[in-house]
Amino acid sequence: MSLSNLRHRRAAYLASFLNLFLGGAILTGFAALYETGSAPGLSKDDRSALQTMALVIGGWGALIIAFGTAATLSLTVQQREKEIALLKAAGALPRQIRRMIMAETGILLVAAAIPAVPAGLGVGHGMLAMLKSSHQVSHGVDFKFGATTLAMGLGDIVAAALVAAIATGRRAAKQSTAASLVAAATEDAGMSRKRKIGAVVLILLGLDDAVMTATLMKNEGYDTMEIAGQACILTGIGLALLAPVLIRITAAVLGPLMRRSGGYLAEAELRRHSRQAAGVLMPVILFVSLANGALYEQFIQDDANRALHVAVSADDKSVQTLSFLVTAMIALFAAVVVANIAVSSTLHRRREFGQRRLIGDTPGEVRRALSWETCAILVAGLVFGTLAALVGVIPFSYARTGDFLPDQGLGVFLAVGAGIIVLTFAACLGAARRAMRVSALAAING
C-alpha cells in the first residue's frame, strides 16, 4: 500500500523528498565542520570558529528544516483524508494507518539520504574553503567527513521526519471515518489545542527574548545579536503555526477589496481551501521573518561599528559570515519549501479546476482567481513575517543605537518581498498552467 501511494502521488511526495534531501545536505555539510573542528592538533581559534558555526547554523537550521519537513508531510496526508477515510471504512485499523504513513516516510528518508550524503560532502568542502579564503580558519586545517558527521546530519533529519510522521499518522488514525470525510469535503481549518498552546508559548518566548535584548543584553556585544535572532525565529515559528487562523483573518480583511475587483470566487475558494493556503503561508512567514531579521540585524551591527570607528576583527568577520550563511540557508530551504508546497497544493486542485472550466470558466479566469488567492497569501506572509522580524530588529536597534527604528531603509525588505512574491507566483501559476493542460473531463476523471 505504501509503495502504491508513493507511485500514485509522485508529485506530492516529490515535495517531501526534495525537502528531506536539501535539509539532509545542509545539516550534513555543517556537521562536517563540527567534525573537522573536533580533530586533534587544531588551534583554539580554528576549533572555536568551526564548531561555533556548525552548532549555531546546525542547531537553528535543524529546527527550521524540521518545521518545513513537518509542514510538507502534514499537507501530503491532509490531501489524502478522503482516501484514508475509505481505508478505515474498508476495515483498516488505526495502527495500520499509522504504519502505512511511517513506511512511506521511511522510504522517502532512505531515498533522500542517498544523494544527501555526497551533496553534504560538497557543502562542507565549500564552507571550509570559504572560511580559509577569508582567513577565519588556517589553511592547514584538513577536512573531516566520517561517522560523526553522518550521525549528526542525517540523524537530525531522520528524527524530524519521524516525529512529523508519528504526529501526522496519529492524527489521521485517531479521526473517525465520518469526521475524515467531512474534513475532506469542507476543508475545515480547525487547529488542535496543543498546536494553539505551542504557538502561544513560542510567541511569548520570542517576546521575552526581545525584552532581554533591549534591557539585560543591551551591552553584551554579539550575544545581544544572538538573542535578537532567537526572538525572530521563535516568533516566526509561532505565527506560522497559527497560519490557518491568519489566512482566515486575511480573507475577511481583503474580502471587500477582492469582491469589488471581481475576485469574489477567489475569496470563497480561499476560505474553502484555507488549510492548503495555510500550508503555503507557513514557509512564507518563516522566509520573510528570518531573512529580514538576520539581514537587518547584521547591517545595524555593521553601521554601529562604523559609527563608533570600531575596527573589523576576526570575531566581526565570523559573525558576518554566520549571519549571511544563516540567511542563505534559510532563503534556500524556505524557497524550496514554498515552491514545493505551492506546486503540490495547486496540482491537488486539478479536479476543481476541471469542474470550473465545465461550468464556463476559461483557463485565464481560473488563473486570475488563483492569482487573487496567491495575493492574499503573500499579503498575510509579508505582514505577519515582518511583524515577527520586527520583534527582533526593533529591540536590537535600540540596544545598539538607542533608536527603536533602524535607519537602514526599506531596501532589504523590498528585496526579500520581491523574491518571495516572484517565487510564489511562479510556483502557483506554473502549476496551474500544467494542471490545465489536460481537458476538463480528463481532470475530473483523475
Automatic annotation (TrEMBL):
Transmembrane residue ranges: 12-34, 54-77, 105-125, 145-167, 197-217, 237-257, 277-296, 322-343, 375-398, 410-432
Localization terms from the record: Cell membrane
Xref: InterPro entries: ABC3_permease_C, Macrolide_Exporter_MacB
Keyword annotations from UniProtKB, A to Z: Cell membrane, Membrane, Transmembrane, Transmembrane helix
The ABC3 transporter permease C-terminal domain, residue ranges: 60-175, 325-439
Membrane topology: Multi-pass membrane protein
Primary location: membrane
Superkingdom of the organism of origin: Bacteria
Family, similarity comment: Belongs to the ABC-4 integral membrane protein family.
UniProt cross-references to PANTHER family, sorted A to Z: ABC TRANSPORTER PERMEASE YTRF, MEMBRANE COMPONENT OF TRANSPORTER-RELATED
Name of the molecule in the record: FtsX-like permease family protein
Organism field: Catenulispora pinistramenti
